[in-house]
Amino acid sequence: MTPGSSHPDILIVGGGLLGCASAWHLARRGLRVALVEQSQVNAGASGQNAGSLHFQIERRFLEQGEEAASDAARIVSLNRLAIAEWQGLEDMLGRGLDIAMHGGLMVAETEAEMALLAFKVARENALGLPTRLLDADELRARAPCLSPHLAGAAWLAEEGHANPRILAGAFAQQAAREGAVIACGARLTGLAMQADGQYRATIEGLDGLGEVTTPRVLLASGHWSARLAGLLGLNLPLYPVPLMMNVTERGEQVLPFLVQHVGQRLSMKQSEDGNFLIGGGWPSRFRRRADGLPDLDRPGEIVEANLLGNLAVAARVMPGLAARSLLRSWTGTTCISADQLPLVGEVGKAPGLFVAAGGSLFTLGPVLARLLAQTIVDGRPADELALFLPDRFAHLNAFAVLP
Amino acid sequence: MSGARRIEEGVRRPDRVTLRLDGADLAACPGESVLAALVASGARRLRDDREGTARGAFCNMGTCSECTVWVRKGAAAWVRRRACLVPVEADLCVLTHAPEAT
Questions:
Q1: Residue A90 counted as domain residue
Q2: Tens of pLDDT along A210-234?
Q3: Most buried residue, A78, B3, B36, B94, by most Cβ within 10 Å?
C-alpha cells in the first residue's frame, strides 16, 4: 500500500468483478478507495466463470420445487435491471467488452422438461420478463446447429455472454483513473474493530506489512469472504464450490446464442473468436491438505467423469461439437450461500462492514456493484438489494463480540 | 523471414520429402515436426486474430494450440492437428486455414 492510502474511506478486499466495479463506482462518487488483492486483478472466479449473461430463472432453482422457484422468481426484477446495466456497460466503461446479447435458449429434451419450461415461462411473464416458449420446429428454425431431437426451448432475446477475462480489469482500470489505489499481491491478514468503531486492517504485501485504518471495509473476496469475516469473529454462510469449464478450438460462427438446459447442467456459447465455451456447473474436486481438509487456496482437480459428462450433454444438444477438439479445461472456485442468494450489503452487527459475495455473480455483478456503492454512499440499503441483505442471516452473529 | 533456421552444419539429416503447404511444395525432413518445417520455411504467421494481429506458434510443446493446422495424409480426410505434434512424412498435405476456405 502507498502511504496515502493508509486511511482510505473504504478498504475493498478482493480484486474480482464485485471489488473492482464497486471501487470504480465509489471512487467516481468521491470516496478515497483502497483495494487489496492477494493475487492479481480478476485471478479468481470472476475471470474463470462461463461468462454467461443469463436472466431466465436458473435450473438450480427449478429443481427444488415450487417454493424455491418462487424465491428465485424474486430475482427476476433484479435480472431486468441487470439487462439494462449490461446494455449500457460498454458505453459506460468506454471500451469493448465482447458483450453479445443476441438471445438465450434454455432447451428441453423431454415432454416433462417442456412442462417445466412452460411453468417457468408463465412465472417469468407474470413478473415482466418476456421469455417465450419455442416448440421443436421454432427452435430448429432459430438455431439449426442444435440437435433435431430437442423438444423445444425457452427463449429470451436479451440473454447472451461477455468476456470474463476483460471485465474486472476494465473496471479496475477506470477505478484507478478515478483515484482508487489498487494493490495486487497484497493480502489481508488481520482485521479488527477498534473501540471507536473504525477498522484496523493488516495487509501483507510486497513491501512487508502495512496497517490501514478505515471506517468501512468491503469483503468482495468470493468464498474467502467467509474466512475474512472470521477475522472479526463473524459468520457468513458462504460455502466454496469448485467447478470446471471447457473450451474447444475455434470454429466457424454458428451459435450466436447462450444455450442452457432446463434438465441438465449445461451452459454453452461461442466466443467472438469462434471457440465454444462449455460449462454449466459441473464440479471439480478440491485437493487435500496434509491434514486431510480440502485445500481452498488451490484450484480444484478435474473430475474425469464430470468432464466427460459435461461434454456429452453439450454434444447431445449440439451434435456438431463432437467433431471439435477440446483445447483446455480449467477449474475455479465459486461459492454458494445457505439460501442460494448472494450476500450484498452491510453486516448489521459490524457497522461499516459490507460484503458482496455468493456466487453466480457475473451476470448480476455490475448492477449489484452499482447498488452496493449507492448503499454505501447513501448510508442506507438500496431498495433493490432487499433480497440480498446479509442480515437475513443476522442470527448467525447473535453471539459475536465486537469490538 | 528467410528460411535459414534449420541447423545444417555438423548435422546429418535424412533425405528430404515433399510436403504440400497451402498448395505449394515444401521440402522437409521426415521425422521433424510439421511446425519445425513451417518455421524453417518462414511460415510463422499462422493466422490473424480478430484485430488483424498476427498469431503464430508459442509453446512448441502441444499446450498452447496456436499452431493448429489442417492435415491430410494421401486421400484421407482433413483433420485438425497441432503442427508441433505431427511428424513430417511423405504425402502429407498441410493447410494453415480451414479447407472449406480454400
A1: no
A2: 999 999 999 999 999 999 999 999 9
A3: B94
Q: Is residue A85 part of a domain?
A: no
Residue A16 burial (C-beta neighbours within 10 Å; 0-12, 13-18, 19+): buried
Q: Specify which residues A242 forms β-bridges with.
A: A333
Interchain CB distance below 8 Å, B65 and A327: yes
Q: Over the stretch A12-35, which tens digit does the pLDDT of each residue have?
A: 999 999 999 999 999 999 999 999
Closest among A267, A268, A258, A280 to A100, alpha carbons compared = A258
Number of domains forming the structure of chain A: 2
CATH code where residue A349 lies: 3.50.50.60
Does residue A86 sit within a domain? no
pLDDT at residue A169 tops 50: yes
Q: Which of B49, B50, B65 sits opposite A249 (nearest CB)?
A: B65
**Residue A274 sits in the same domain as residue A315:** yes
**Is residue A352 a contact partner of residue A199, using CB atoms and an 8 Å limit?**
yes
**Which structural domain, as residue segments, surrounds residue A314?**
100-158+242-334
Contact criterion met (CB < 8 Å) for A325 and B50: no
ipTM for the predicted complex comes to 0.74
Chain A, 260 to 299: residues with Cβ < 8 Å from chain B are 272-273
The per-residue DSSP string of A162-203 comes to --TTTHHHHHHHHHHHTT-EEEES-EEEEEEE-TTS-EEEEE
Q: Answer whether residue A88 is part of any domain.
A: no
Please work out, in degrees rounded to the nearest 5, the angle formed at the alpha carbon of residue A277 by the alpha carbons of A274 and A280: 155
For chain B, domains (ranges, CATH) are 17-101 (3.10.20.30)
